[in-house]
Write a structure and sequence with these properties.
The chain has 459 residues and is α/β, with parallel strands linked by helices. It is 32% helix and 22% strand. It contains 13 helices and 20 strands. The longest helix has 24 residues, at 354-377. Iron/sulfur cluster (SF4) binds next to helix 5. Residues 152, 154, 156, 159, 161-162, 196-197 line the site of iron/sulfur cluster (SF4).
Length: 459
């Protein structure tokens, strides 16, 4: 068997691409190995979103070349082959993002099978009959990212994703639902729905219907999410624009069908700056929307991300952002300094000095830390449902996530149990303490996997 190593960089969307490539490699009889020395070839799936991500990708390619020498590059940075070749002329092949066939062609050419090709395609006897048994997953078994669309139709001035990934191309609802059904059948308890703009799902398809089971389902976020909710897993939404139809999802959250969680990347609060970013809204409309959502679902957890130091940002803009954060009391906030991306329209605008960007980042982070600590402290004494991600250092202790926390980006619940709790279990816990980002608690019981009962507060 020919042996392939794999390095996966970037966001959850890139991670889903990595899973597809790994699944195809294994389906074609390649052995997936964990270290450079054992591999005959290494595939590096890169990120090219912002300058630090480009640098990280170039460093990862350099390391793979040093340690192995036979390297295929794919992913977002692969859309800029000249940037890669300039630093690493010895890369064997370069393909663009989500180009599964391109990667496979390169691997087949560089590492042809010397055995009877068809035997390698047969599933192992032990894997036959297991749903989704051949799919390679880079997430733990109990949660999975479900990508509903590729590309993006927006033109935010700081972003080159539409150039790299092209316009939005959605999957049919039936395609998404079949994948979700397989995932849930193979033990996935949390489906995390992603796209560049999840709320625009299906627009490019004009919301066409497709057949799923005995019914037609529209390629539209609301009916899709209704169907996903009926599968019996937690369903979490990421990268949602606050479009009016998002309002229709909030009652599903209030009813417990959908996790009361929204990741809404607002990017700023100043309408003037948002216009320069080519994004809608401003603090007033953001607040109106958030208040309307919370009226319907008070336990809704909102995550957002913001950019400080965008070209032309003034002190008044920063104050507006600080005032917005104070009023909005968001649950989770990511703050980044603006970073130039080759090819982004915002590069032509007057830049904010690096020192000022850092100073603004510190101010926003300090405020949000205080707000986050207050919000988490208000949960002390309550009972929450959580899913167990890992074991903690002390015997019987686990690291879990409540419905308000997405993996990798939000906080955790560090929880003491009686030692019988396993990774992937759903538990009920009493919250006993908190800090700026995390909760601490004691497990009161393991909840049966009856997802309709599993959402929100367990008290
Ligand atoms: S919505 Fe804006 S920031 Fe997000 S991928 Fe599209 S262009 Fe980029």
């Amino acid at each position: 068997m020919r042996r392939v190593g794999f390095v996966s960089l970037g966001c959850p969307k890139a991670l889903v691409d990595s899973e597809r490539i790994l699944t195809q490699l294994r389906a074609e009889g390649y052995e997936l190995v964990q270290d450079y020395q054992a591999a005959e070839l290494v595939v590096v799936n890169t990120c090219g979103f912002i300058t630090p991500a480009v640098e990280e990708s170039l460093e990862a390619i350099g390391e793979a070349l040093r340690e192995n020498g036979n390297v295929v590059v794919t992913g977002c940075l692969g859309e800029r082959p000249e940037t890669i070749r300039e630093r690493h002329p010895k890369v064997a092949a370069i393909t663009g993002q989500a180009d599964l066939e391109g990667v496979m062609q390169a691997v087949r050419a560089l590492l042809p099978h010397d055995e009877e090709p068809f035997t390698g395609l047969l599933p192992l006897a032990s894997e036959r009959g297991r749903p989704d048994a051949r799919a390679v997953r880079l997430t733990p078994r109990h949660y999975a990212y479900l990508k509903v669309a590729e590309g993006c139709d927006h033109r935010c001035s700081f972003c080159v994703i539409p150039q790299l990934r092209g316009p939005q191309v959605s999957r049919d609802a039936s395609d998404v639902l079949h994948e979700a059904t397989r995932l849930v059948a193979s033990g996935t308890k949390e489906l995390i729905v992603i796209a560049q703009d999840t709320s625009a799902y299906g627009r490019d398809l004009r919301h066409r219907v497709s057949r799923y089971g005995d019914r037609d389902v529209e390629a539209h976020l609301v009916p899709l999410v209704r169907e996903l909710a009926s599968l019996g897993a937690w369903v979490r939404l990421h990268y949602v624009y606050p479009y009016p139809h998002v309002r229709e999802l909030i009652p599903l959250m209030a009813d417990g069908a959908l996790l009361p969680y929204l990741d809404v990347p607002l990017q700023h609060a100043s309408p003037r700056l948002l216009r320069a970013m080519r994004r809608p809204g401003g603090s007033e409309s953001h607040l109106r929307t958030i208040e309307a959502w919370r009226r319907v679902c008070p336990e809704l957890a909102i995550r957002s991300s913001f950019i400080v130091g965008f070209p032309g940002e003034t002190e008044e803009d920063v104050v507006e952002l600080l005032e917005f954060l104070t009023a909005a009391r968001l649950d989770r906030v990511g703050v980044f300094t603006y970073s130039e991306v080759p090819g982004a329209a915002a590069n032509d605008l007057p830049q904010v000095p690096e020192e000022l960007k850092r100073e603004r980042l510190d101010r926003v982070m300090a405020l949000q830390q205080k707000l986050s600590a207050e919000r988490l402290a208000s949960k002390v004494g309550s009972s929450v449902a959580a899913i167990v991600d890992d074991y903690d250092e002390l015997p019987g202790a686990v690291v879990a996530r409540t419905t308000a926390d997405a993996p990798g980006v939000d906080g955790v619940l560090r929880c003491q149990t009686d030692g019988t709790v396993k990774i992937g279990d759903l538990i009920e816990a009493r919250v006993t303490g908190s800090d700026e980002y995390d909760l601490f608690g004691t497990c009161t019981r393991t909840l049966p996997w009856r997802p309709a009962l599993a959402f929100g507060s367990a008290s």
